[in-house]
UniProtKB/TrEMBL annotation:
GO terms for cellular component: cytoplasm. GO terms for biological process: DNA replication; DNA synthesis involved in DNA repair; double-strand break repair; SOS response. The RecF protein is involved in DNA metabolism; it is required for DNA replication and normal SOS inducibility. RecF binds preferentially to single-stranded, linear DNA. It also seems to bind ATP. It comes from the Bacteria. This is DNA replication and repair protein RecF. The gene is recF. Its main location: cytoplasm. SUPFAM superfamilies: P-loop containing nucleoside triphosphate hydrolases (SSF52540). HAMAP family: RecF (MF_00365). ATP binds at residues 43-50.
Amino acid sequence: MTGVAKQPEHDQQTHISKLSLTNFRNYATLSIGLDPGAVVFSGDNGAGKTNLLEAISLLTPGRGLRRAPYADVAREGGDGGFAIHARLDGPDGPVEIGTGVAGGDAAGESGRRVRINGAAARSAEDMLEWLRVVWLTPAMDALFTGPAADRRRFLDRQVLAIDPGHGQRALDYEKAMRGRNRLLAEGSRDGAWFDAIETQMAETGVAIAAARAELVRLLAAMIDRLPSAGPFPQADIGLSGALESEVGTSAAVDVEERFRQALAEGRDRDRAAGRTLDGPHRSDLVVRHRPKAMPAELCSTGEQKALLVGMVLSHARLTGEMSGMTPILLLDEIAAHLDAGRRAALFSILEELNCQAFMTGTDAALFSSLKGRAQFLTVDHGTVGPTI
Ligand SMILES: Nc1ncnc2c1ncn2[C@@H]1O[C@H](COP(=O)(O)OP(=O)(O)OP(=O)(O)O)[C@@H](O)[C@H]1O
Ligand SMILES: [Mg+2]
């Protein structure tokens, strides 16, 4: 490197400068200082690396990267509760975010609490005002070959990062659909009830489809800006789902009306099936590997991973441009599947994105090209210290 090498600028970036955990998974208590930029957690299997990423993933609405019940997250042998505390530094100055579940509320079914700068937040969504967190874990390696529900969840998380209202929309739709499914199960013929619920489903369902279609449009445009022969192949992305395809060509009110009618006409069919068969809860994200002109699910494991990494990086860039907040990236075991060339490419894209990126691996050597440009921490049975 020459003396004129550009130093990454971190002043516009929000990053976690301090993370403290209490009774979280295998951490009784932990408090660590974190650098902006790349942070590498290395350590043996079971040391607690993914647990650290999971803690950070709970700084965004939802159940975190494992989608675990809170009772599983609370440390065995603790008081049944857990707490995560993060100090953020960024353009808006320091922000303190705390979240957790009190002991005695071990089931945590009343939800976790969130405090921002010491005051109780109205909901977990309030955290989105301060930071965005995006992750890629080994469990997502089967994203293209696994069930559509996983791809929908992935898609909806991507929408949420650029459109914070999406979480509530999804909850409202789910709630209405559960109400309809209950009526179906009871064999109800209460037309007025069905009408009311289906009107709600039509409104929220079309809003969901429109937000997804918008994300896909924006992300596809971002992917098109990538070099066509880059280390991470371009993905052609699309949506399969009646509503998603209609929202692009018809006015929302018309799509809503058609969906409402379809639900009303489908009552007998749905009663026989025992559930609602039409709607955005059945849609799918369709991905193709552009250079190979191949559906993603037919690509090799490594090709699928590279495709997914490319999508996540493009989405991170999109989120930064749309929200002004470059997301914090959690890349669990990221180095394992990538060859040396792709690893180096990933590291330089992360620097160019100017985001805080947490990466884990059992072998710190896979990250050796980041020496001097990243913070290296060793995780060992619920303790974290500098890597020597
Ligand atoms: N509620 C809990 N209380 C105490 N320990 C827990 C709890 N939940 C999980 N653990 C333990 O935390 C340990 C660390 O898990 P983690 O998944 O973070 O490991 P890791 O470092 O990512 O390992 P690997 O390299 O295998 O992915 C595991 O041994 C697990 O049994
Ligand atoms: Mg792990």
